[in-house]
């Protein structure tokens, strides 16, 4: 037997080394060859590096296919029965699912379309608009984008994950996420009506400061190699926006059928976020069904203890941005604790398991996901304490 270089570039015995295209080759051999890029063109490498993907069964997404039917059944149950003739806990679960779906659906559908649309925007142009990753201007632009987009927090999350895939720095993604969850135009107007213009503007200013500081910290952590950099980043180029966009879009099909396909692709690309959204709806339905609402006005006063209780509840309780605004207003108007309201709005995003798990799935890094609450929560508590002290 003579030794030579196999198709994968590794030394092996010609007589004993199976070919990549050999159907009798074991899975391990396929994996070794795939990692070197010599899988047959008709076979797609698997996530674990194998080139026998055609024989590998797709894993069932138990979170999605357990929680989604529960949400659908609960929504239908509310339409069919309302509150009549049902145990109180079941009626609460039905109503919560109905309320949450009605509050989220438009943001999720809009976000799915934007996610699909982003696939038609050149990565270099996306980064040109957001600015250079790791720079102050890049963080300012990402924060401004988060403030201006009129989407719910779950819709914003879907956009943020696509921005990561298009090359935004970790700091820009975090600044975008932290600034945006309740700062859409719609929710800002709702908050103005509930708690007044001055306090609403104070909340917006506080969230911007935290977003910028957090984004800067994340970029510095990447610089020092504490956190992994975004592997999707490309060399920054300042491009003229409209000419570049017009040129790149000139070859695309914009008929309604093509736009529908674009939306469907965006929805599929957002599946990792959607699975945690339906899980969150089920969780909040259970919490609302079995945790008495009177606790908000009794336990959450303008004290340090009340502030930490608010943090605990907002960590456990998954509430969409539309649902969080009335609760935050209740903390201001009934509990007299503007800092608690700010903490509820901001820490809800910083500790939201939907965001944490989506970050982990997208970045493939537990460290990045867990650094979100680690970096932001102390800042949120400090601002909340100052608001209770001077508000």
Question: How would you sum up this structure, described in words?
Answer:
By secondary structure, the protein is mainly alpha-helical. 68% of the residues lie in helices and 2% in strands. The chain has a two-stranded antiparallel sheet. A hairpin with a 5-residue loop joins strand 1 and strand 2. Helix 7 packs antiparallel against helix 9.
Q: Can you summarize this structure?
A:
This protein has 391 residues and is mainly alpha-helical. 68% of the residues lie in helices and 2% in strands. It has helices spanning 27-34, 62-81, 88-118, 123-130, 136-148, 153-166, 170-179, 185-195, 197-223, 241-249, 256-269, 271-290, 295-299, 304-316, 321-333, 338-350, 353-363, 366-390; strands at residues 3-5, 11-13.
The averaged pLDDT comes out at 75
Number of helices: 18
Biggest beta-sheet profile: 2 strands, antiparallel
Uncertain segments are 1-56
Q: Rg to the nearest angstrom?
A: 24 Å
What is the share of helical residues?
55-70%
Keywords:
disordered N terminus, 2% strand, 391 residues, mainly alpha, 18 helices, 2 domains, two-stranded antiparallel sheet
Helix and strand arrangement:
Elements: E1 3-5, E2 11-13, H1 27-34, H2 62-81, H3 88-118, H4 123-130, H5 136-148, H6 153-166, H7 170-179, H8 185-195, H9 197-223, H10 241-249, H11 256-269, H12 271-290, H13 295-299, H14 304-316, H15 321-333, H16 338-350, H17 353-363, H18 366-390
Antiparallel strand pairs: 1-2
Helix pairs in contact: 2-3, 2-12, 3-6, 3-11, 3-12, 5-7, 5-9, 6-7, 6-17, 7-9, 8-9, 8-15, 9-18, 12-17, 14-16, 15-16, 16-18, 17-18
């Amino acid at each position: 037997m003579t030794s030579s270089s196999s198709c994968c570039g590794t030394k092996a015995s010609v007589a004993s080394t199976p070919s990549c295209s050999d159907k009798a080759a074991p899975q391990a051999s396929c994996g070794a060859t795939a990692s070197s890029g010599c899988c047959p063109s008709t076979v797609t490498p698997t996530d674990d590096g194998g080139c026998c993907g055609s024989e590998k069964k797709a894993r069932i997404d138990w979170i999605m296919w357990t929680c989604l039917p529960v949400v659908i059944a609960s929504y239908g149950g509310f339409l069919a029965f309302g509150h009549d003739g049902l145990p109180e806990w079941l009626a609460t679960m039905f109503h919560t699912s109905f309320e949450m779906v009605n509050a989220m659906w438009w943001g999720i559908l809009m976000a799915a379309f934007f996610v699909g649309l982003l696939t038609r925007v050149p990565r270099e142009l996306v980064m040109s608009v957001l600015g250079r990753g790791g720079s102050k201007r890049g963080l300012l632009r990402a924060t401004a984008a988060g403030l201006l987009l009129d989407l719910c927090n779950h819709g914003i999350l879907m956009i943020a994950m696509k921005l990561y895939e298009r090359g935004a720095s970790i700091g820009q993604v975090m600044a975008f996420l932290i600034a945006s969850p309740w700062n859409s135009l719609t929710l800002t107007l709702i908050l103005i009506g509930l708690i007044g213009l001055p306090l609403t503007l104070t909340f917006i200013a506080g969230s911007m400061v935290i977003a910028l500081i957090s984004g800067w910290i994340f970029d510095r952590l990447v610089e020092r190699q504490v956190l992994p950099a975004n592997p999707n980043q490309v060399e920054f180029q300042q491009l003229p926006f409209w000419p570049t966009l017009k040129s790149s879009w000139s070859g695309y099909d914009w008929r309604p059928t093509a736009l529908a396909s674009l939306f469907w692709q965006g929805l599929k690309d957002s599946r990792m976020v959607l699975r945690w959204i339906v899980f969150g709806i089920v969780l909040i339905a259970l919490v609302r069904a079995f945790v008495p609402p009177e606790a908000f006005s009794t336990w959450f006063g303008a004290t340090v203890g009340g502030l930490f209780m608010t943090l605990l509840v907002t960590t456990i309780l998954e509430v969409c941005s539309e649902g969080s605004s009335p609760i935050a207003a209740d903390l201001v108007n009934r509990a007299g604790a503007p800092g608690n309201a700010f903490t509820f709005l901001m820490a809800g995003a910083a500790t939201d398991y939907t965001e944490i798990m989506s970050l982990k799935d997208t970045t493939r890094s537990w460290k990045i996901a867990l650094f979100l609450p680690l970096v932001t929560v102390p800042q949120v508590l400090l601002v909340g304490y100052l608001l209770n002290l001077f508000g």
